[in-house]
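Why do we care about 3D structure at all? Because function follows from shape, and shape follows, mostly, from sequence. That is the central idea of this module. The next example makes it concrete: a single protein chain, its amino acid sequence, and then its structure expressed as tokens.
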Amino acid sequence: MTPNSAAPSAPSRRSFLASTAVATAVVAGGVPLLSACGGSQEGRKEGTTSGKDAKKILPTFVASNVVAPDIPAKNGSAAGFTKAIPTAELKTSVPKKLGSGGGLKVMAPFWGTPPKGDNPYYAAMNEAVGVEVTWQNQDGVTYDQKLGAVLASTDIPDVVVVPGWNLMGKIPSAVNAKFADLGPYISGDKVKAYPNLAAVPSEAWQRGIFGGRLRAVPMPASYVTDIAPMYRRDLFDKKGYTVPTSPEEFLSWAKEATDAKSKIWACDDMKWSAFNFYGVFPGSDKALWWNMVDGKLVNRVETDEYLEALEWTRKLYAARVVHPDAVSGKAGGNARNRFTAGQSLVFNDNISAWWGSVSEQATQKSDFDMAAFDIFGADGGDPTLWAVQPANIFTFVSKKATEQQIKDFLALCNYCAAPYGTKEFMLTAYGVEGTDYDMKKGMPVKSTTGVNEVNGAYDYTGNPAPYVAYPDFPEVTRGIVEWQQRMGAFTEKTSFFGLTVTEPNRWANLADNFEQLEDDVVRGRKKISDVQQAVSDWKSKGGDDLRDWYKKLLDDTGSAN
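And the structure:
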């Protein structure tokens, strides 16, 4: 789970948009996902599919050239669009309706109150795509429970959305048995019948391989770390502070900047940024905790960098430069509020919080300004960063679906994967003009109806290659993409990057207690020696055996890199 999040908030590729809605973070799940290696794929419940085998079933990649971004993608970054496209200049990416007019029932998580099923937005999308979609929205907070119950039954909806963080317990074992193989329809050059899906990066499609088959349409994301250290640039300028460029410099600055009597603290909890400062293997997926180092497969909890990051974060807490609400464990969703209120000058969060904070404060504090500073290395030099997974939300089709229903599903996904600057994108992202949004000063602005209805639905059924588009705040768009590009230049990929891995059940929960232990250590409730003991226990209780299992997996199937 990402920092400062008590629970996953509504994830959406459309969170990278200009609207009156508050931005929602794209949450990276922390659960290994199901796939299989070789042999009889249908019965396998653990393992992965290698890069070399995946090539046989991945869709052919054909980049979209419908609309050129203002800032092209580079070093694994998203592409950036800084301008709103006038309605008259919108391009067409789906020249003819591909849907047959048939119906699909789609089960998806929803955070909040779902809109009525007969709203104008849904009706317009059904008409444009040629597919009658009936949304079966479920409470996102308890979605894993509903998902488990549905997949254990014989009554499976035609289409099911599965967030990565919900793939736990018995849910992964149901994936192969319950969902269809999309390969016969979109593997290789067959995907060219759906040009917008062909433009989805291959590394995202690889994450859609489950049980040795291409079963899921993924939600693509940049593989550059999505956790950014953000600072109040306006307050730094006012105080004459310079941005720290090393852990040592940060701690020194933090002591100077903290003024508890004035209720100003240097920072909020910085553990996740510390992991980046010290080059710790990424925490968004347990498979990424493993990497080959000097010929040996090593888990991140065994590394010196892991302990050094925790020790540095502990020093921040010990120096009392961290906001007291974070000290008491009230990290939750309040860290950003403490930051915008000026009570903390630095915090780390999903980088989409940059636009969320700026847009929120634009009507409240005219001089509010913030930015993300570059991640530095442990010695103040260049950092060593590790790629996160390029997709972590998946949409499946029931094995009971007819061939025409699968084609209708792909028609729907192709429409929703339309790139920024197209007519299809505007309808999918903003809804019906005059009802869901209006053009004001050349910018599409959602109405209350649009905010309530145009979300949590077609976000999941098809997504374009990663992009950032905040035309209402173009400087934020540029800031985010250029930060990703700079950080991407220092980003490497661990041995299991891009692979969906399910650990054997006997070891799947082996490392579950480490996150709580980390939080206890940095807050001074436990010691570094307690982590070292936990690592020793982890190794003896199955960690070394799990290492052997991962190493054999790597030897047998190869890396996706």
